[in-house]
Amino acid sequence: MTAPTSDAAPARDTRFFGQPAALANIFGVEMWERFSFYDMQGILLIYLYYSAAQGGLGIDETVATGIVGAYGGAVYLSTILGAWIADRLLGSERVLFYSAIVIMFGHLGLALLPGLMGVGVGLILIAVGSGGLKANATSVVGTLYAPDDVRRDAGFSLFYLGINLGAFLGPLLTGLLQSTLGFHWGFGLAALGMAIGLTQYAFGRRRLPAASRVVHNPLPTSKYTLMIGIAVGAIVAIVLLVLVGVIRADNLSDVVILVSLAATIAYFIVILSSRKVTKVERSRVFGFIPLFIVSVGFWSLYQQQFTVMTVYSDKRMDRDLFGWEMPVAWVQSINPIFIIILSGVFAALWTKLGSRQPSTPVKFGLAAIVMGAAFLLFLPWANGGENTTPLLAVVGILFVFTVAELLLSPVGLSVTTKLAPSAFHTQMVALFFLSVALGTAIAGWLAQFYDPDNEVPYFSFLGIAAVVLGVAMLLAVKPVLALMKGVR
Predict the structure, then answer these.
(1) What is the per-residue pLDDT across 186-243, written as a single tens digit (0 to 9) for each?
(2) Shortest CA distance to 84 belongs to which of 434, 442, 454?
(3) Which NCBIfam families match (predicted)?
């Protein structure tokens, strides 16, 4: 059975749980990409700071959390490159396909190359590939729906379900392999998962809408040489900065934060000043700015699952299950379980409410408040001894994480495709991911202030700050909606 290929047909297609059938193909490749990503992410931090006797690299713990935060930020920062190539050169669907290939080779690098060489080569390839796949998978999903299709938020929630099926399975299997056979077997499993995702996507990619292959703002051939020169110059500059010691392992988070900020400012200036953007589109981009700020604050806390939360799970949480010690990586599967359970609930809720559902700014404000509450929930167990926090307490806190995530992440992806100017369709999605890049890098930077012997200030300050940010968003709902010009 062939999926619809016209722009109008997807609005009438309900073959995939009430959504367009083509959603299933993107659902599949994103699921396996997330499988490989969380497979590797579940053991990356402990691989960096575990001793050589434990199979790790023995890097200082603070430096290791900074590397993980910087890597996570670089993944989302790379969405800019993937989005630009899609909008100017190849179209979203082709970039998605090629990015999946790069990701697979990155995981192979981590699995097969020794020590820091494998980490460097592997993480660079995975960051670039994941950035290209993330922005463009989201953009391709957006092409399946007409602008006024009320199923859009529900469709993105189902897409999010695919992401989290992979995120659930990856750490479970990795944790078992790492604890029994070693870290490199876990990284090898990530490569295998990405290969499966790439294969299933290759067979179904031709059935995606023609709109997914459109190059929205083609780059003139006369500028190809200039762009190649800029790319080569950027690579040379990065290499030189590494060689002279300006970019180091212990300041990677700072570098990614600064680059992300610069890229954010530059992107907003380029889009808002473009002659190809209409007055209405420009107003909508201005309306996106407060959403962007709240998103940065949200991800600064949420992405600590891979920094502070990993250390907390390794050292503070009681992982004893009837005499068997649960692998640290398994904690990364708790949040995806709740996503799998609740994403369908949220999708059904938004579908049932239809035009009566809360507006996007309201959902963003509530997400920040709930995320702040999750950090405050750490306080009853703050300053405890080793392995004193009950597993059920962490499960409860991650449940609150999940509620906050579902209020912001799939909704943010959806509203970004609706607010995007036509000439910057995929690049606007990259702007949303830039907020994740900033938040993720900040999460790595914040980890240096986490003190297991004095946790109350850390969890209190961040929790209260997030609640204040959310309340500010709720107070600004009316002016933000006015700027969004009919988009809710």
Answers:
(1) 788 888 888 888 888 887 777 777 777 778 778 787 777 887 888 788 778 777 777 7
(2) 434
(3) yjdL_sub1_fam
Contact 277, 423 (CB under 8 A): yes
Q: How many domains does the chain have?
A: 1
Domain membership flag for residue 10: no
Q: What does the alpha-carbon distance between residue 130 and residue 128 come to, in Å, rounded to a whole number?
A: 6
User: Where in the sequence is the domain holding 117, given as residue range(s)?
Assistant: 18-483
d(CA 160, CA 154): 10
Give the pLDDT of residue 1.
36
Full DSSP string of 100-155 = HHHHHHHHHHHHHS-HHHHHHHHHHHHHHHHHHHHHHHHHHHHTTS-TT-TTHHHH
* Residue 12, domain member (yes or no): no
What are the tokens at 72? Answer: 């996570």
Instruction: Give me the pLDDT at residue 409, please.
Output: 84
> Is 8 among the domain residues?
no
Q: Taking all residues of the chain, what is their mean pLDDT, rounded to a whole number?
A: 80
User: b/e string for 358-374 if b means 16 or more Cβ within 10 A?
Assistant: bbbbbbbbbbbbbbbbb
Distance CA 3, CA 20 (A): 8
428, 420 Cβ separation under 8 angstroms: yes
The answer to whether position 4 is within a domain reads no
Nearest to 133 by CA among 161, 155, 101: 101
Q: Cα 205 vs. chain centroid, distance in angstroms?
A: 23
Q: Which H helix or E strand runs over 11?
A: none
Enter the tokens of residue 297: 């604050």
Q: Report the 10 Å Cβ neighbour count for 163.
A: 25
